[in-house]
Amino acid sequence: EDQVTQSPEALRLQEGESSSLNCSYTVSGLRGLFWYRQDPGKGPEFLFTLYSAGEEKEKERLKATLTKKESFLHITAPKPEDSATYLCAVIRANQAGTALIFGKGTTLSVSS
Amino acid sequence: EPEVTQTPSHQVTQMGQEVILRCVPISNHLYFYWYRQILGQKVEFLVSFYNNEISEKSEIFDDQFSVERPDGSNFTLKIRSTKLEDSAMYFCASSELIPKGTFGSGTRLTVV
Q1: Which of A42, A44, B57, B75 is the most buried (most CB within 10 A)?
Q2: 3-class secondary-structure state, position B85
């Protein structure tokens, strides 16, 4: 069965304290891995797409990396406004290949 | 920046009643999706829609559910006879070729 597991479930950081979020996946043929940010009561907001092992993407304080079994979202010197739930999702390389399979997310709290 | 718009933001309905959730996707997008998120749980794929037909659907999307693109701008999700367990946030999304999805802010459906 295709699965996406994110860890930790919750993470508390001080402003400026860098850390990483993990997303491990088992899927029958990976077409793409996606990272989203979700604020309370809102829909997921797209951050990155990664397609192949070794690929990296960066945006401001965030950097996403991908291996054959997992992805990391590195947060460098976070600020309170980075507090949110970060979701990982994959798409299978099946015929349709349109369904995003989400993990439960990591809820990040950054205090000043 | 273009947005996906969902209405209503919150709907309360009696068990057994029909509900229609409405979405206006981004105008030049080709794929349309519905996802749901039960409180405290992961975002789950329901259905994707392309070229006026369903391209993929999950096990959740049973005969109770239907989707329609009644005109050139709207995309709807109908639940024929709501159950208590249908209470959730329902997110509409749209995308160009890469199914990363731009999500709307959601409709909170409460079945009483």
Answers
A1: A44
A2: helix
Question: Are the beta carbons of A99 and B98 separated by less than 8 Å?
Answer: no
What letter does residue A41 receive in the DSSP assignment?
A: T
Contact A43 B48 (CB under 8 A): no
Instruction: Pick the residue from chain A with its C-alpha nearest to B90.
Output: A43
Strands B107-111 and B10-13: parallel
Give residue-wise pLDDT tens across range A40-70: 989 999 999 999 999 999 999 999 999 999 9
Nearest chain A alpha carbon to B99: A98
What DSSP line would sit under B15-84, residue for residue?
TT--EEEEEE--TT--EEEEEEE-TTS-EEEEEEEETTEEEEE-TT--TTEEEE--SSS-EEEEESS--G
Return the residue matching tokens 């997310």. A105
Alpha helix stretches (DSSP H) within A1-112: none
Instruction: Give the containing element (helix H, strand E) for A75.
Output: strand A70-75
Structure tokens at A55: 């690929």
Q: How far is A86 from A105, CA to CA, in rounded Å?
A: 5
> CB A104 to CB B42 under 8 A?
yes
Q: Exposed, middle or buried, B13 (CB in 10 Å: 0-12/13-18/19+)?
A: middle
CA B99 vs CA A74, A101, A103, B37: distances in Å: 24, 12, 17, 18
Dig out the tokens for A100 from the structure.
């995003």
CA separation for the pair A67, A70 (Å, rounded)? 5
